[in-house]
Every structure is written in structure tokens, then in C-alpha cells.
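Q: Joint fold for the lines below.
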Amino acid sequence: MKKLINEPADVVDEMLDGMVAAYPDGVRRVDGTKVLVREDAPVEGKVGVVSGGGSGHEPTHAGFLGPGMLDGAAAGEVFTSPTADELSEMIQACDSGEGVLCVVKNYEGDVMNFETAGEMAEMAADTDVAQVVVNDDVAVEDSTYTSGRRGVCGTIFVHKVAGAKAAQGADIDEVQRVAEKAIDNVGSMGTALTSCVTPEKGEPTFDLGEEEIELGIGIHGEPGVERTGIMDADAIADELTGQVLDDLDPSGEVATIVNGMGGTPLMELFVVNRRVQEILGEEGLETWNARVGEYMTSLDMCGCSVTVLDLDEELKELLSAPAETPGLKV
Amino acid sequence: MKKLINEPADVVDEMLDGMVAAYPDGVRRVDGTKVLVREDAPVEGKVGVVSGGGSGHEPTHAGFLGPGMLDGAAAGEVFTSPTADELSEMIQACDSGEGVLCVVKNYEGDVMNFETAGEMAEMAADTDVAQVVVNDDVAVEDSTYTSGRRGVCGTIFVHKVAGAKAAQGADIDEVQRVAEKAIDNVGSMGTALTSCVTPEKGEPTFDLGEEEIELGIGIHGEPGVERTGIMDADAIADELTGQVLDDLDPSGEVATIVNGMGGTPLMELFVVNRRVQEILGEEGLETWNARVGEYMTSLDMCGCSVTVLDLDEELKELLSAPAETPGLKV
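A: Joint structure:
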């Protein structure tokens, strides 16, 4: 295993220290936890918007902390949910009295721990807690770690929309409403060319032959829907985009993300984006905003995912609102 | 070889189409070339700032197109300089009559072709062309493709500083002056954990054993200064940062980039940044701005580089100026 790490057991802790060292004016760590919050949290008069989950998906989650997006981000160990205790500390640290919306990706551990954490915060500090569960992966219905669909890269849009609404001073019901609207209108599907290697295990999470790729992969190396021979970029774009569009059936304007899984160069993501945008055009859709880069990764996995968000005027307005956060490229 | 590409020979062309498809309101392609320019180039009353070089370093160069940074970016084939003809077309497309500054990384092909291109543009369109050569890599004095030091990730600071000065309406001499100031005050050094694989060749550019890393590596897989056993992240940060500081001898405030080489997850870059910032603190330096992410890559190479820029008030003001470009994270 070749990784830029020290002791594998320290990797999350040291990553968080490295994030604070990079953005000391932007984020701070809640003492004794693996929770990062906006330096000025809780923000007076504003609903808190928080997220979290296992580490290994960077820039998700802490990369989206900042004005206009997240107030708090809890990091679990690699591919492991944060504890309910830490999630509850995060929720309380981000509550200015207006309540806190938790954006949760649909994995059993995350959903359960966020639910418990919400109850803990309500009991401990009378915090008004709401929760939305992102389940945008159209590839599989149930999976290794989920009942229902997995939450993947579409989560970025939910963070952005909820963060923007909260920044405008909306109440918690309104922030939850727009987050749910984004969830209802987003779909994603990914593919892996290689497995990822977790620091603790030090070897590939799953085996994929030299001539194989896996379609419909999850972001923790969970099985996808089909293992097939190597396909070219256009064929992969056709498959991923086609399945998302079949499921979502958007019309009019969309926003897209061609997301890298961690080990794939940006060059290749743009090659995929070329075909994704062609397909959308052929389907009579207009891309209002396209993002290409790493948003929801799986350590060093090579591969990509395609996310499509069906837009209306409200979602467009919230997506265009200002956000100051290191993970969100223009 | 597993890559998200179609025909290897088409990869640069299709990448550029994918960039235009992502940012149709921001960039356009100069017909019949591999040159991308700002959609509104040439910008009236403003010195043009352009760059370019081989492909495979994305988001460099076209990822830095936009208000406050680059007006033009020429893409060669992978790891190959753009032709003088195309560079000349770029220069002319970015000249509003105020002249054009070319930011060139110090590789013999790039320097020669940019020089020829400048002469061509001067002859063809009476364009006032200036050139600066970035040579920030402290690892080696001469190398495979260079006389003198190689230009690597410090180039990003030169783009930002020159782009900001030009956006303020400065004349070409002033834009050149601040670019040279940035060049005089920046140093970088990198390491590779793995080779990169070019699309055309389809196999590693060089061999690096399972238990080996290379220090002082270039961004095209050129040899570094030392091949050694696997080191942990802190030891690598010590080595890279130490050598940059020895060479640069900064004082007071600095800006830093911990840059990923393409295949390394963001998690690992933050682990490296943790130690880099510790070292700077131990040396009595204050980090005014820290960037962590992929800025100057080498296809799918795993590894990182550390860049330090010694600051003064003018450089700080130019670095803080607004820029709207997809490659520059907050």
C-alpha cells in the first residue's frame, strides 16, 4: 500500500487537523470530537444545516462548510458512520435557536445515528431538529448498507440548496422543504474502474480484473448492478446518463455533476462530460449548470458518477446563491 | 490500461470539447485549434494573460481561464508543447491592443514555441508580447526537458498575480513585473508514489517498485533527485517543505499549495498539509493562505508537491483579488 499517511489509525484525525490548518479562519474543530463546524457557528438567527458520514469521500463533507452551505460536518472513521454522541454535539454546536436540518445520506448506520443524535439534542438542549435522507443512486434498490437507494453525489445539490435557503433566513420547515425538493428531483449513477484501498486494510476492498469495470457501484465499494468488460468513455457516459434519465425523466433545464471517484484524472472527467452533455442535448434538455470534478469520492477509486438535477426556478435561484466553501468549484 | 477515454489519439480534443460543454458561457475554442479562450476575449482595455503547455496537468491550464486569471490557454498533446502556430493564434485572440503576457513553464519546447509564437504575433498583428518563465522546482537544476529549473505548481500563483494585475487595468510592463516578482518568490518540490500512464502509451512512464517512492519528481515523470523506500506523510512533508524553505528562505507571511498529482485522494493531501503547516509554524512563518487540492497534475500519478510563496503586501493584495475560474478553489 502506497499512501500519503502516517499511522492508518490516525488518518481521519490528522486529515481533520490538516483541514483546520488549511482554513483556520473558516472552520474549527469541536473539542474532543471529529466534528468540524464553521468558525462562527452557531450563526445567529439562521437555521443550522449539517451533514456527516464516514470519511473517505472528501471533499464531502467538511469541504462544503462555509457561508451558504454547511454549518457542521461530522467525520466518522473511513466508511463508518459518526457516532450518535458526536452527531448530537455537532447539532448543538450549530443551533442558534432556529433549529438544525440534518442532511443524511441513506445508509443504515448514518440514518440510525442521526435519528438518535436528533433525539439527544432535543432532550439535552431543546433543539428543533429536522432530517432529510438523500437517496439519489438509481443503480440499486436495496444494497449492502441500505434499505432503499443509496445516497451519493446528489447530496452536494441538497447541501447547496438547503444552505442557500438557510442563509436567506428561512425557517426550518422551509429549509427542509427545499432540501426535499432537491432530493425528489436528483438522480445519480456511478462506475468503478478499480477498487479503493482503505488505509486500515491496505488492500483492495474488492477484486476487479484488469479487463473489468463495474457499473452501478456504491461509494464504499459496494457491489453495483453489472460487471462488464472495459467500455470506452462514451459508452460509459451513455449507460450512466441513460439510466439516470430513465429514472428521473426530467424536462427543460437541468444541473449536472460529472464526479470523479478519487483516483481519476480531471482530463478523463471532461472527456465523459463531453458525451454527457451531448446526450442531454439529444434528449431536448438544457444544461443550466455543469460541474466537473471531485465532489463525492471513494478514496483512491478510479471511476466516475453522473448526477442530474431536474430544475425549477426556485432550485435555480438557490443554486446560484453565493457560497464560500473550499469544495465547491465555480 | 483502464481510463475513461475513447480513442487515445482523441483525448485532448475531446477533453477540450468537454470543457467547453461544461462552461459554455465562460470559455470558447478558437476554431481549428486546441486553444481555449475566455468567451469575451479579447477583453477591451486589458492586457491579455495567457499560458499553455502539454496536456495531462489539468486543471492547468484551461481550468484557470476567467476574469481575474487567464484569458487564453493552449493545450498541446499529452506532455507535449503546443505548436508555435497555435500559440500565436492564442496570443492574437487575447490581444485587445494592450498587449499579451505569456506565462511559460520552463521546458525547452514550451519556451522555444512561445518565443516563436510571440514573434509571429508581433509580425502578423503588431501585438506587444511579453514573456515570463516560471522555474519554481527546487529539486533539480537541469533536467530531462529543461535547462535550469522546471516550472511546476508555483505557476498557479503567477497566473493569479498576473491575472489580477491585468484585471486592474495595469499596463503590460506592470503585469510582467508582478509576474516576475511571484516567480522570484516561489519554490516547489514534489514526490511520486507511482508513475503516470499516458493514454497513447498505455503503460507506466517509468518503473517504481512496490516499496519505492521518488523525491523531486517532475510533472511528466522526469526523474527526481532520490529514489527511496516508502516514507510516511510527515517524513515526506519534512523533506519537501524543508528543501523548499532552504532554497527560498522566506520570512514573515507565506502562501502555500499542497498539490495532488492526479491520483492521490484529497484525504491524503490534508494529512500532508497538517505537517506542512506545523513545519512553517516551527520556522516562525505565518501562513496567510493555504490551498490543498489538485492544481498541477501529472495524469494519474499518485503523489504530491509542496509550493511556498514568500509574500509582500502587493502579492497579498493581488492574490486576494476576485477571480472567477473553475480550477481555483477558495
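Q: Anything notable?
A: Chain A touches chain B through 66 residues (CB under 8 Å). Residues 251 and 259 of chain A are 22 Å apart (CA to CA).
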